[in-house]
Design a protein that fits this description.
By secondary structure, the protein is mainly β. It has strands at 2-8, 11-18, 27-30, 33-42, 47-54. The protein has a five-stranded mixed beta sheet with strand order 2-1-5-4-3, with no helix packed on it.
Amino acid sequence: MYIVYFYHERNLLLQQLRKEIPADGDELKIKGRKAKVVQTTTIEGNKVHVQLQLEQVVKKSAVDLSKKKRK
């Protein structure tokens, strides 16, 4: 069992107890967001730091309220 720390740019996102270490290039879903493993680093015997690249969230623009329905 490994203690895996997931980081995005120096920010700790999640730490998990896992049976397997994610490999470079793996696609993961963390906290509902898609992520890709960039780098894995073994610190001590069972501690692993994983650097992630999160997919950018595209926000949809608000509905245009200037067009009103005619009655």
